[in-house]
């Protein structure tokens, strides 16, 4: 059983990665059940079935009822709370009638590990915690939201409790592993480092659809620099826009493809600086996403200083 708010067809990167994982597990003979939410990363999305089986993965979804999208902290918090409450009910019923080998909880939202730990305890099942971000450290380090110290203290206690319940913990890199050892007192032998994988469908020798560039108003002669994915609180995207400003008179196109809280900031800066060599595109279906990456000359990955220890 895998628990996470986001799962394909939701556009959030964690949901896409988990879908890759689940489909891969099914291919090698495992039975996989996912408890997730209705597509909710964006506000204007089509609902998916409450239950369906896709590529052998059994998917149970929480109905979000007016709490989709990320335009405000309040809306996101309401969505998180709704998912946590109703995912527990769904997972509880599932674990009562089925035998699972392991419960896996990711970190979207940050407290979903509580649901995973409680469900694993209820069914006497091993619990695996997968962290793509370490909370509350990442919020404190970025000053993303201003909350009382007592909230950080409680958040820290909840995170440590989740990790204490896990038979094993997965993180993305050695920096994150060391942070858990130093600040959460997690046994190093219980931590596994598994970086985000590359999809085998991206063969660099493949040719993109020849109409891809024209569909997005990009000239065939332009050199394309692409950032694809979520632009959140950890991406120092202003540095990339500074580069775009310096190269404004060159034949270089900067392409931002994705979403996140930083996309509105990008739009404002592009308009303010009149960066006509910057194109901003929302998340695209996989086929178009693949075409855009294959059309790119350079792809960027950005992370603020020190964030490799937390994300």
From TrEMBL:
Signal peptide: none annotated. One of its GO terms (molecular function) is hexosyltransferase activity. Residues 211-302 form the Glycosyl transferase family domain. Keywords: Membrane, Transmembrane, Transmembrane helix. The keyword Zinc does not apply. PANTHER family: SULFOQUINOVOSYL TRANSFERASE SQD2 (PTHR45947). This is Uncharacterized protein.
């Amino acid at each position: 059983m895998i628990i996470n708010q986001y799962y394909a067809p939701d556009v959030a990167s964690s949901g896409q990665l988990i879908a890759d994982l689940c489909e891969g597990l099914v291919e090698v003979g495992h039975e996989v059940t996912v408890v997730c939410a209705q597509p909710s990363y964006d506000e204007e999305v089509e609902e998916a079935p409450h239950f369906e089986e896709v590529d052998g993965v059994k998917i149970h979804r929480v109905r979000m009822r007016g709490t989709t999208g990320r335009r405000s902290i309040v809306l996101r918090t309401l969505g998180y709370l709704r998912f946590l409450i109703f995912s527990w009910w769904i997972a509880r019923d599932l674990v009562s009638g089925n035998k699972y080998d392991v419960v896996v909880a990711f970190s979207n939202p940050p407290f979903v590990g509580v649901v995973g730990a409680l469900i694993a305890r209820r069914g006497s099942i091993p619990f695996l915690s997968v962290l793509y971000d370490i909370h509350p450290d990442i919020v404190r380090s970025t000053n993303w939201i201003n909350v009382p110290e007592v909230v950080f203290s409680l958040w820290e206690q909840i995170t440590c409790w989740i990790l204490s319940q896990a038979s094993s913990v997965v993180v993305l890199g050695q920096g994150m592993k060391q942070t858990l050892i130093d600040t959460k007192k997690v046994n190093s032998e219980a931590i596994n480092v598994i970086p985000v994988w590359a999809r085998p469908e991206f063969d660099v020798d493949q040719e993109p659809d020849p109409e891809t560039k024209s569909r997005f108003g990009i000239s065939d002669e332009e050199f394309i620099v692409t950032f694809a994915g979520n632009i959140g609180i950890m991406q120092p995207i202003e540095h990339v826009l500074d580069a775009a400003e310096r190269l404004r008179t060159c034949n270089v196109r900067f392409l931002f493809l994705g979403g996140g809280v930083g996309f509105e900031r990008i739009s404002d800066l592009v308009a303010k600086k009149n960066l006509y060599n910057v194109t901003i595109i929302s998340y695209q279906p996989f086929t178009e996403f693949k075409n855009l990456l294959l059309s790119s000359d350079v792809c960027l990955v950005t992370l603020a200083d020190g964030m490799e220890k937390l994300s």
